[in-house]
Amino acid sequence: MQETATTFDPIALSILWSRLISIVDEAGTTLQRTSFSTVTRESNDFAVVLMDRKGRSIAQSSVSVPSFLGVLPILTKALLKDYFPLETWKEGDVVMTNDPWLCAGHKPDIGIVSPIFYQEKLIGFIGTIAHSPDMGGQLWGAGTRDLYEEGLMVPPTKLISEGKPNETLFNILEHNVRAAEQTVGDIRAQVAANDQGIKSLLKLMNENDLIDLQDLSDAVINASEKAMRAALLAAPDGCYQYAYDTDGDGLGAGCHFEITITIKGDEIVADYAGTSGAHYMSINAVLNYTFAYTAYPIKCAFSPDVPNNDGSFYPITVTAPKGCLVNAQKPSPLGARNVTGNMLHSVVFGALAKAVPNQVQADCGSACWCIVLNGEHKGKEFVEYFFLNGGYGARPTMDGEHVLSFPTNVANVPIEVLETDVAVLVTEKSLLKNSAGDGEFRGGLGQRFSFKNIGEKPINVSMVAEKTKTVAKGILEGGDGQMGSVQIVPEREFPSKGLDKLFPGEELILTLPGGAGYGNPANRDKAAIAEDRILGYIS
Amino acid sequence: MKLGIDIGGTFTDFVLFDDNSKQLYFAKTLTTYPNPTVGIFNGVKELEDKFGFPVKDMSGIVHGTTLVTNAVIERKGAKTAFITTKGFEDVLEIGREMRYDIYDIFLTMPKPLVPRNLRMGVTERVDIEGNVVTPLDEDALQSLATTLKENGIEAVGVCLLNSFANTSHEKAVGDYLSQHVPNMYYSLSSEIMPEIREYERSSATAMNAYVQPITDKYLKDFETQLRTSGFEGNINIIISSGKLTTIDGARKSPIHLLESGPAGGAMAGVFYGKHLQEENLLCFDMGGTTAKACVIYEGEPEITNHFEAGRVKRFKKGSGLPVRIPVIDLIEIGAGGGSIARLNTIGLLTVGPDSASSTPGPACYNLGGEDPTVTDADLVLGYLNADYFLGGEMQLNVEAARKAIETKLAKPLGISIEDAAMGIHKIVNENMANAARVHVLEKGMDPRHFNMIGFGGAGPVHAFGVAKLLNTKRLIIPVGAGVTSALGFLVSPVASEKIHSHIAELNALNWDEINVFLKDMENDGYKFLAQSGIDKKDATIQRVVEMRYYGQGHEITIDLPEGTLDARTIPEIEKRFIKEYEFRYNRSIEGMRMEMVTWRVVVQGPIPEMEVKQFSTTVSDADAYKGTRKVFFEDTGYLDCPVYDRYALKPNEQFDGPAIIEETESTTVIGINSTIQIDKDKNILIDLQH
């Protein structure tokens, strides 16, 4: 028996909604457990999204990182419009692409979309997006000069047609990427995750006598949209502006961000007019990606508890001048666009602090620093990615946490694992005293991390650091966090972004920035200051 | 005669097995604070008074307690310091740098058990292969010892970098402390958790130190009092993996006691499964605030070493302190009798994870609770008997339950009280079924292939609904459902579990080295069993390795072939790995290199045989049929449902659902389309027609 949209009572809807989320979470678990990519596995750098026939998202896996917010539905809608119209999809098809303008803004992120058929009718789509171990081209980092140095680009293509693998595409992939078995293995894992999601969804349809997804999709999308609109309506109307600077290359070619956020009734518009142009380094963001990292802090501020789907984002509009840093066009290099995306929360919260000061946090010591080490260890080539985070920004009612990832959510690589994989000896990992911004609530401390090349050969280092020339900005009279730095011993120039080598015996000392403070430092609780002193967070 | 004693948050449970009569006896007393041994001896006395079994006649006692878990959750451990390699004092505080909730900007991370001013570095360094890079600065230990004394430190954890590869520096620190700071407890990471990953190892070591003084004192008292009462048998303590250790073992590694209660429940599931010839079972245990589910596959509970204690946000993975010890792999869900139902921000009905606990409790307790809970819903629907809750010890107020549901839910939603109550019942079942399904699927298994066993106070009330959602064929409600953990203690084997980190590709292993450490771990195990009077010839050996495809991050566990290993064993190991990988993930990857990570050797004593003739000690000769009452079922609405007295049910009786079966600790609710059979031991077997 088919239920119509009006008959999903709050109980039935609650049950079906949690089942939908459980389906994408199950698929996500499978993907994560079988993937080779460190970032997919350890840092949840993936998303699984269930979509209706129109490509609107109904449910997204709960642990995915913000960079994938809204990306799969944008991709699927584009596939339907420009590549594979609705009526052309067959059961057993799988489409793949890593086009940064359709997916998540750089080539390593691969989107895989499968149609879902029930009783021979196309009822929706399921998609996964995940960070692949490699897509060819230069060693990943901020140093590529154009898009073509960043490896292979696969436009939307059938990876599998009616169950039959596209051997040509697999062949091209295998010949263009490093560690081909891992990259192809991960693509297969994405397909398997989609299949598992389809299986579980069909079971749900069957058990609940549903023959179509559209009514259920409307119901959950409407509910999320309503929640977001209600929260926006409660905020004061107005135009809120904020300007912000970041390192850029760290050598003088910095980046400037400007945002105007307009809240009017139950809608919010974020416009980046005034932001600097495309950068020569590969830190440019496509608009999809800018949308994800703009919508994310907005969701945190206004509707953190409601499961996200298409409806959460209908009231949000993000615009940016074509060709600027946050709306990059071909052939701007994009590889390390996360450095730019990771800054957008600072800009958004900075502006929103003027509208809803109790719903935002102060600036974090982000972006997350990404370091890629490449060389030879015990006769084998290694490519090791590792990540370090700065201090977390203070909140309206509490201090920032020390050394915590935001807005992305990336774990560090254990020292002992790093030393297993690479010929380095880590010499220090500690909290950086006095690095947090002061305030009624202080920011979290940054960290110092240093390591030495103890091998016999130089190690290639691709460095993506940030806030070595700029700082995490305090809000509402809160103080700024301390700047970070990249130093090498014996001393010489070492870039904070780009490629260099660490020679045997050299030691790299990385100092990560602290988080910013919130509110006037004069109002800080004396007992909290005393405790910080006892614990050695401040001197 | 053997006695199992389980200290829980509210009750202390006792299960006694008499080898002569093959009978099981149960008792329950209130847990006493601050000194739980008082409650224990109340129960011991009750067993003697009621059944005539004095404690001095027991041959063995198995004990489990929530003491360690509570000390971590409530932060009531000892004043603890932490010693590490200089420059790495903050590893314990920095953790993995990752948030556990993506959208909550107001989240807080768990505070380290040792504050920054009590974490101290010593100059030393060992590399990943175990070579000494910087010798230990022994002179520095002297001032360190002085600082420990001056600060009144009771316990210290020591975790140096790469100590799993070379234990000498940690041992030297330990030796120095034991000589120069007597009466202070110390835990070495190379003994507590000799595994790679410094944060996780530090976390486990600090926690062990933190709980050691209180556990030690408690166990000492417990043992002394038992011996004073004339008890001369073996004392064993149950640990998180469902195995038993000795008092000394527990005093040395108290973190292994973290999940002792739940482990007992799972081991009871193993026992019932064997007894009922059910190899694959899903154990479902639902109490006042949480529900737990775990898988028993081919007669064995699934073990994991991913575990967190003291979560700052309950049920949220990543919000606790990691402890990589072997634990029975169970999921905990914020769903219990006390779970509160409310309308969320978008007007949908949700249940839990917050709970009304025991104070104020559900609205029907009449203790001032105004929020509608799962228990209130179960009462309104007629599943619970207001006059026979806890065997009539507590009168429930139906009107208060109806009022809470009406005011907070039914009116705002514009539906009847019964429909709202049914909504609560269904949603909580759905939450539990979803979690159980993900849990089973994560292991690459199909939930439909498992029969279910339900226990705990609220378990039998909800098990039928959950079983329906999971397409379970048979549901078992065992006798003694209220004291299952303590029963599980009696059927758990004594075992030693040794771990060793040694990371290398399968094709590049130094087999001589491996055979040596495997043999050493095995011999250590025999020595340990001897302390419980178990002979080497009665021991079974399980040697496993956690391995993965080279480049992956999740390991799977493979049984190693027997005997001495060498290059000729490689094809067999590969075969086992691929078989297991395909089983878990439905695929394998051809030609991919494999890597070994952690090696484990479990030396286990025999599983205690319990040939039980009679389970129930409360037998009634009255007619089991108590009449009917109005009960609300989803498919039928209200109907006159037969009610039975569990104690009066006769073996081999058979009838159809719907039915309500009442006993002191719980109520079994059985819907339509089912057949109920009472087996010879008076377990309730329910077959569901889907």
Verbal overview:
The complex is a heterodimer of chains A (539) and B (690). Chain A is α+β, with helices and mostly antiparallel strands. In chain A, 28% of the residues lie in helices and 23% in strands. In chain A, the strands form 4 sheets. A 7-stranded antiparallel sheet of chain A has the order 2-1-5-4-3-6-7, with helices on both faces. Chain A has a 4-stranded mixed sheet with strand order 8-9-10-11. Chain B is globular, with a radius of gyration of 26 Å. With 690 residues, chain B is of the alpha+beta class. Chains A and B meet through helix 1, helix 2, helix 5, helix 6 and helix 7 of A and helix 3, helix 7 and helix 12 of B.
Explain briefly what this protein structure is.
The complex is a heterodimer of chains A (539) and B (690). With 539 residues, chain A is an alpha+beta fold.
The strand line-up of the biggest sheet of chain A is: 2-1-5-4-3-6-7
Largest interface: A-B, 82 and 68 residues
| Residues in helices of chain A, as a percent range | 25-40%
Domains of chain B, number: 5
Distance between the termini of chain B: 44 Å
The chain-level structural class of chain A is: alpha+beta
CATH class value of the largest domain in chain B: Alpha Beta
Features:
heterodimer; A: 539 residues; alpha+beta; 12 helices; 28% helix; 23% strand; disordered N terminus; B: 690 residues; 9-stranded mixed sheet
Could you give the topology of this structure?
The complex is a heterodimer of chains A (539) and B (690).
Chain A lengths: L9 H25 L3 H6 L2 E7 L4 E4 L10 H13 L10 E4 L11 E10 L2 E11 L25 E5 L2 E2 L1 H10 L3 H28 L6 H20 L4 E9 L8 E10 L2 E5 L15 H16 L7 H4 L2 E4 L18 H4 L2 H9 L16 E9 L2 E9 L26 H7 L2 E8 L15 E7 L5 E6 L20 E5 L7 E6 L4 E5 L14 H9 L5
Parallel strand pairs in A: 10-11
Antiparallel strand pairs in A: 1-2, 1-5, 3-4, 3-6, 4-5, 6-7, 8-9, 9-10, 12-13, 12-16, 14-15, 15-19, 16-18, 17-19
Helix pairs in contact in A: 1-5, 4-5, 7-10
Chain B lengths: L1 E6 L3 E8 L4 E8 L5 H16 L8 E6 L1 H7 L6 E6 L5 H4 L24 E4 L2 E2 L5 E3 L3 H13 L4 E5 L8 H13 L4 E4 H4 L5 H31 L5 E5 L5 E3 H6 L7 H16 L5 E6 L4 E7 L2 E2 L1 E2 L3 E2 L11 E2 L4 E2 L1 E4 L5 E5 L5 E7 L18 H7 L17 H16 L3 H26 L8 E5 L3 H11 L4 E4 L6 H7 L4 E11 L5 H20 L9 E10 L6 E4 L10 H16 L8 E11 L20 E9 L3 E9 L8 E3 L2 E4 L4 E4 L3 E5 L5 E5 L2
Parallel strand pairs in B: 1-4, 4-11, 5-6, 5-9, 9-10, 13-23, 23-24, 30-32
Antiparallel strand pairs in B: 1-2, 2-3, 7-8, 11-12, 13-14, 14-15, 14-20, 16-19, 17-18, 21-22, 24-35, 25-28, 26-27, 26-28, 29-30, 31-34, 32-33, 34-35
Helix pairs in contact in B: 2-7, 4-5, 9-14, 10-11, 10-12, 11-12, 12-13
